[in-house]
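Could you join me in thinking about how sequence relates to backbone shape in a protein? We need material for that, and I hope you will provide a protein of your own picking. Once you have written the record down, we can walk along the chain together:

…
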Amino acid sequence: LERPTLSAQVARHLLALVTKEQLRPGDAVPSEIQIGLDLQVSRGSVREAYRTLAALGILEIEGGRKPRLR
C-alpha cells in the first residue's frame, strides 16, 4: 500500500479544514507558509498541493493575493 504523496496529504488537510471551518467560495484559505508551518512540510509540497487544487477548480490562486475558495 503506497502512502499518498506529501502534496496529496496537504491537499487533503486543506479540504478537511474547509469543511471544518465551513468556508464558502470567496473565503481566503491559510497561506502556503502557514500550512507549511502547521504540517511541518516544505513550502514546495504546499505549493504543489495548492496548484493541484487550483487545477481542480477548488482554489483560486492569484499572484500576491491570498488563495481563495472557488
